[in-house]
Amino acid sequence: MEVSKDILNYDEQIILELRTLYNEFGYSQYRMSRFEEYELYAENKAFLPSGEILAFTGINGRLMALRPDVTLSIVKYAKDDGKTEKLYYNENVYRSDGADFKEQMQVGLECIGNIDTPLIGEVLLLAKQSLDILSDKSKLDISHMGFPGGLLQSEKMTLEQRNTLINCINNKNTPELKTLCLEYGLSNEFEQRLTKLASLYGFYEDVKDQLKELCINDEMTSALNDLDALDKVLRKTGINKNIKIDFSIINDISYYSGIIFQGYIEGVPARVLSGGRYDELLQKFGKKSGAIGFAVYLNNAEFFETAQPEEKDNYINIALPKGRLGEKAYAIFEAAGYGCPEIREESRKLVFENQKLGIRYFWVKPSDVARYVERGAACIGVAGKDILQEQSPDIYELLDLKIGKCNISVAAEKEFSPEKSNKTLRVATKFPNITRAYYQKQGREIDIIELNGSIELAPLLGLSDVIVDIVETGQTLLANNLEPKELILDVSARLISNKASYKFNYEKIDKICESIKSAADN
Fold this sequence. Notes:
Layout lengths: L9 H15 L3 E2 L5 E3 H5 L12 E3 L5 E4 L4 H7 L7 E12 L4 E13 L3 H18 L3 E7 L1 H8 L5 H12 L3 H10 L4 H12 L1 E2 L1 H11 L3 H20 L5 E4 L12 E7 L7 E5 L1 H6 L5 E8 L3 H6 L9 E6 L2 H12 L15 E4 L4 E6 L4 H6 L5 E5 H7 L4 E5 L5 E8 L11 E5 L2 H11 L3 E5 L6 H4 L5 E6 L3 H5 L2 E10 L1 E5 L1 H6 L1 H16 L1
Parallel strand pairs: 1-5, 7-9, 13-15, 13-16, 19-20, 19-21
Antiparallel strand pairs: 2-4, 3-4, 5-6, 6-12, 7-10, 8-9, 10-11, 11-12, 14-15, 16-23, 17-23, 18-21, 18-22
């Protein structure tokens, strides 16, 4: 019996179309319980997007969890008989968004068994066709874990250092990569290769020569051969013209191997599809098979329905922080050829446009810039490193503008020595996340007191032992009998970009970055 689309909600229509697509390619529906033993997820937290699990005690006393992931359940019960299983699902998962747990619908597919290049090509074709069901303007970008994995293995470093570098690659944070490589004592050649890998973006045929130059070991050469073979398969379907290489797509090396990929649609600020090959996960379950799959995230279905890219004005929206930092940042854009004359005029306006250049500036509170960019209201913006470190937004960090320089430090009264105090350290700050992370590395027990006003008052009035705050000249500390004790973070202003906006406006954003760098050099 055919179901009329007139009686289906928009997200139900999407689910029906996706299920029909996967059925046509021979995939069978997989059903599962919404509950699973807590241990399954606890042992594989690194595989989960947030790592947070909603748990409860079952009637028999066993600790259970509301399912935060579908793939782990499929892998747990997958057969390991050498045959290839092709499965699809539409299931709710229960994940934290950083503030609370939410129920989210996923539709996706998994292939478990003998994973060859034609099958990988089929999965990528289905991923692109899935995006096409959501919108007629979509992007599918791919990466290969062999490149970052092989490169990171070429130098000696700790696990913590490796993970920090991976996080920088994920954010295209080449300024930080350069700083960290110097700090970790890594070679100049390694740093150059790593920053090149992180910033690389383009069609395979346009970047393959650069990839050849980056190869320095068998793992990277094997990855290049995989991409070359895959490109030949994709050319037969024609979707090679719709897929770009982006090595900022990077997952946990202990779970993923081979091809990984992400999908975006215009008008939606975050990825809507994510997938990859995860042979390492099966090995953790004692299985010899390979595996690849992806999930379509339908928690943003309302965006799919309302996004109308054909009516988009094609402006590059730029969020600038109010105050001196924003004025300095605007001067940089102006010197790079992206001026907007009316922004210099006396007015109470917050939004300014240059129609000829196709740019739009707007002023926002400094601490809000990253949120405007992350949520897609701004394509790019200027934010201090302190804000980025505190908020950890999912953005690209493209340039260090080298303005607004200061640092975040621990400060206290001159006679107080934090390292000699054995009691729980009382710390007043407006940077709780930065403070917590800093003292966790030291293994120090602290009591965080969040303040938003004059932090320097806290130790003077006995509210705290120390403060963690921005230090620019140190004059305010000196005037209040305080002094810096420990440096936590050097701060400067960074040019950041929304990840989806970067995909759909790459040429424009890249041109802005190059113009800024050229103006700085001159």
